[in-house]
Amino acid sequence: MTRTSGQRPRLLAIIELGGYPNLTGLYQRLGFDAEILNSQRKAQAALKRRLPDVIVAEYNFQSDFRDRSSNLETLMARLQRSPEVKVICFYQAEYQHKLEQLRQRFPVFAALPLPVTEDQVEQSLRAALAEAAVAEV
Prior knowledge:
This is Response regulatory domain-containing protein. It comes from Thiorhodovibrio winogradskyi. By secondary structure, this protein is an alpha/beta fold. The protein has 5 helices and 5 strands. It has helices spanning about 25-30, 40-50, 70-80, 95-105, 120-135; strands at about 10-15, 35, 55-60, 85-90, 110-115. The protein has a 5-stranded parallel beta sheet with strand order 2-1-3-4-5. α1 links the parallel β1 and β2 (about 35). The longest helix has 19 residues, at about 120-135. The N and C termini lie close together (about 10 Å).
């Protein structure tokens, strides 16, 4: 992770559609400095200001997009230069095959089918923190 000793890990949560538990308390309990946004456009601006250690976002398949299949592609393309950022995404089970196509092109750390539980998200976040800690050694 890209922080100095003593600095809290940074998390960017992008909630566009929602429909799952409010995870802010979990992020805080795990020690994250969390920023929560409601659009990919705002997320792109946030990434210019500071790079998070973990991003939690939704994969929303959209067949009407002309040049991409989902909201997540622009985000993932931007993160190609920052492979240390762990992306955890939530997806609708009926679009798993589309998400798998995206995962062939971009590294998604964890993908959780909706409805997600706080326990599932916590396990993924702890795994991301553990992997980052090993990479720092």
